[in-house]
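Hi support team,

I submitted a single chain yesterday and got back a structure, but I'm not sure I'm reading the token output correctly. Could someone confirm the output below corresponds to the sequence I sent? I've pasted both exactly as they appear in my results page.

Thanks,
R.
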Amino acid sequence: MRSDEVLYNFSSGVWYSFSGTGDSVQLTLTGDYDTQITLYAGENCDDLECINNNDDSPFEITAISSVITQPTIGGQTYFVFVHGFSGDSGAFTLQSEVVDAAANDDCTAAIPLDLGVNDTSDTSAATADADLPFCGMYVDRSTPVLLQINRFLSAVSSFN
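Hi R., thanks for writing in. Yes, this is the structure output for that exact sequence:
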């Protein structure tokens, strides 16, 4: 996938690359504009797969920051595209760090929960559990996903 194929990506930007270590990485982008960051995996720029994207940080570092936390595969090449939402551009700072997954990231390492006692942790470096059975989230498998997205976007635009 090329950067120009990302949904609603109409901005110019700059590229970085790194090699995965098997650890999770957190990329924090702050700038003087509405930042957006996209992470791709691939052997080269003609063979990119979009892995993760963030426009507005859920951590509210600033109103114009973007954060991705992503597990990596050792030896895999990753490309980071730093750009702006809706064509925004400007000065930025990109911070990268390795983050540790929680001790109970895997079901086999589940920590006993003491009922009536609060526990505080962090899932930002947790890995995906792809083998879990389906539970609770409704997905309309009879309607193509792109059609569902178009219907959602149409509904959202009608509120404006």
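A quick pointer for reading it: The first helix runs from residue 145 to 157. Let us know if anything else looks off.

Best,
Support desk
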